[in-house]
């Protein structure tokens, strides 16, 4: 129990009820930070004894604070201080670091572990050039007419087949074409968020999505992650308290941790969404990049209650410049999202949609996906080999078995932001974990993206990381 809790003054002869005085005192301690978020309040009997009041007074005070969303109760565990909604995201740390050293570094020749794009040599340029030419030959100027706001119907039908391979069965009239996943997140925010609404996000999370939610006036609550997904006991506590507009998550190879959800966690998440009447935004950027034998099972494929808004980007698996993706929408929100999409840009480029449909019709998608997975898997295994060689005993890293990045935990006493600054001096660019923390705090992690680099650069970069960690630890111990 915090010592400051005993500094609450009572006026037993006053007009204000004792429970209200106790609640006001606790609220003041919470507001000033003496009782931090998720800290446990004293048991009812101990609190009553400490202040010389009866148990009912304490129960009433706790209930009053719970109704104000200042505390929440967990069955069998007690009463806890609520997390405080965050209002803003700090400027990305990496930008400041890059600016500090840009005069002394040629970024064109730096070892850039911050870049998540794959080499352009892997892009199916010739096949798309052929598709562009065929669309232009077939439709002439008509190729550039405005498209139906939902998207080109033959493409939507093709994409239904694409995602059915992952177990998502839907009709073309439930699919909305979008200009990339970020637009999808923004359109959903535009359609569903009212100023002051609460949105749940994973902690850590993708700052692009968090920025879209905040730009619409949302308050963000972070749900801590375990090795197989969100901590669902914490999630349920917060669902009781806040009733969010939706929960934002990535079921596989989460940005930035690389975590994939267990089947148990996915089913539990869907049960909670149904029980507490909320939606889930599932973003799929990297599901195609799985390096094991088992194909990912998206949350949407288990969604029998129509609670999941599925957003898929084709930027990584095809080409970033296509700016193309899709959303699968529950019927209840479909009309509102369509209207928000229309007022955003009327429609996604009709010419690109037709070219993409032509590409899929002639080439399918699985062969190219296999090529990308094979390339990504080889890079992943090579990176792990170098990481074990140069980071073992110095830092730890999560093994995602998919995606394009490693989430590296630095040893105690080595700050991520300071480490990234030191690495920039050595011509190595990394992403500090603070870019993925809503609060901007230094989490002691860095993200290392490997798919855009040659093997020799990966090796040199990891060797320099190991040497720098050792150097910083040595200085810290002197």
Secondary-structure map:
Blueprint: H1 18-31, H2 44-51, H3 55-67, E1 71-74, E2 78-81, H4 93-101, E3 111-112, H5 125-139, H6 153-164, E4 175-178, H7 181-192, E5 198-203, H8 207-215, E6 219-226, E7 229-230, H9 232-242, E8 246-249, H10 263-275, E9 279-284, E10 308-313, E11 325-328, H11 331-345, H12 350-363, H13 366-391, E12 396-397, E13 405-409, H14 416-425, E14 428-429, E15 431-432, E16 445-449, H15 455-477
Parallel strand pairs: 3-14, 5-6, 5-8, 8-9, 9-10
Antiparallel strand pairs: 1-2, 4-11, 6-7, 10-11, 12-13, 13-16, 15-16
Helix pairs in contact: 1-3, 2-3, 4-14, 5-12, 6-12, 7-8, 7-11, 13-15
What features would you describe in this structure?
The protein has 478 residues and is of the alpha/beta class. It folds into 3 domains: 3-81, Orthogonal Bundle (Arc Repressor Mutant, subunit A), CATH 1.10.10; 93-121 and 368-477, Aspartate Aminotransferase, domain 1 (Alpha-Beta Complex); 125-365, 3-Layer(aba) Sandwich (Aspartate Aminotransferase, domain 2), CATH 3.40.640. The chain contains 15 helices and 16 strands. The protein has helices spanning 18-31, 44-51, 55-67, 93-101, 125-139, 153-164, 181-192, 207-215, 232-242, 263-275, 331-345, 350-363, 366-391, 416-425, 455-477, and strands spanning 71-74, 78-81, 111-112, 175-178, 198-203, 219-226, 229-230, 246-249, 279-284, 308-313, 325-328, 396-397, 405-409, 428-429, 431-432, 445-449. The strands form 4 sheets. An 8-stranded mixed β-sheet has the order 4-11-10-9-8-5-6-7. Helix 8 links the parallel strand 5 (198-203) and strand 6. It is globular. The two termini are 36 Å apart. The relative contact order is 0.13.
């Amino acid at each position: 129990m915090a010592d400051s809790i005993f500094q609450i003054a009572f006026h037993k002869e006053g007009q204000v009820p004792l429970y209200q005085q106790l609640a006001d005192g606790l609220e003041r301690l919470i507001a000033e930070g003496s009782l931090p978020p998720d800290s446990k309040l004293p048991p009812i009997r101990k609190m009553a004894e400490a202040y010389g009041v009866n148990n009912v007074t304490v129960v009433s005070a706790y209930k009053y604070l719970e109704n104000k969303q200042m505390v929440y109760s967990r069955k069998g565990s007690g009463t806890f201080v609520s997390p405080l909604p965050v209002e803003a995201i700090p400027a990305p740390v990496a930008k400041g670091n890059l600016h500090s050293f840009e005069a002394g570094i040629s970024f064109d020749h730096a070892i850039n572990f911050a870049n998540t794009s794959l080499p352009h040599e892997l892009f199916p340029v010739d096949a798309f050039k052929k598709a562009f030419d065929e669309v232009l030959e077939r439709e002439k100027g008509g190729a550039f007419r405005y498209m139906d706001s939902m998207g080109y119907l033959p493409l939507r039908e093709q994409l239904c087949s694409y995602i059915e391979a992952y177990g998502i069965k839907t009709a073309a009239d439930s699919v909305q074409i979008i200009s990339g996943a970020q637009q999808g997140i923004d359109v959903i925010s535009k359609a569903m968020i009212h100023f002051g609404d609460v949105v749940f996000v994973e902690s850590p999370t993708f700052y692009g999505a968090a920025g879209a939610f905040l730009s619409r006036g949302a308050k963000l609550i972070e749900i801590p992650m375990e090795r197989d997904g969100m901590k669902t006991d914490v999630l349920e506590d917060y669902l009781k308290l806040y009733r969010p507009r939706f929960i934002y998550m990535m079921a596989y190879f989460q940005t930035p941790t690389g975590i994939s959800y267990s089947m148990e966690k996915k089913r539990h998440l869907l049960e909670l969404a149904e029980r507490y009447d909320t939606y889930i935004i599932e973003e799929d950027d990297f599901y195609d990049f799985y390096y094991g034998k088992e194909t990912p099972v998206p949350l949407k494929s288990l969604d029998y209650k129509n609670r999941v808004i599925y957003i898929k980007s084709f930027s990584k698996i095809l080409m970033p410049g296509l700016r193309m993706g899709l959303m699968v929408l529950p019927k209840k929100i479909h009309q509102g999202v369509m209207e928000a999409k229309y007022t955003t840009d009327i429609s996604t480029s009709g010419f690109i949609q037709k070219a993409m449909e032509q590409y899929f019709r002639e080439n399918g998608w699985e062969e190219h996906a296999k090529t990308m997975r094979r390339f990504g898997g080889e890079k992943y295994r090579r990176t792990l080999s170098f990481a074990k060689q140069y980071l073992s005993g110095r830092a730890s890293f999560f093994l995602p078995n998919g995606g394009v990045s490693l989430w590296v935990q630095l040893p105690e006493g080595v700050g991520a932001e300071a480490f990234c600054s030191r690495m920039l001096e050595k011509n190595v660019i990394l992403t500090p974990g603070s870019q993925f923390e809503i609060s901007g705090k230094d989490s002691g992690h860095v993200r290392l993206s490997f798919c855009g680099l040659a093997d020799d650069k990966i090796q040199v970069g990891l060797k320099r990381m190991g040497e720098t960690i050792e150097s910083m630890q040595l200085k810290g111990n002197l």
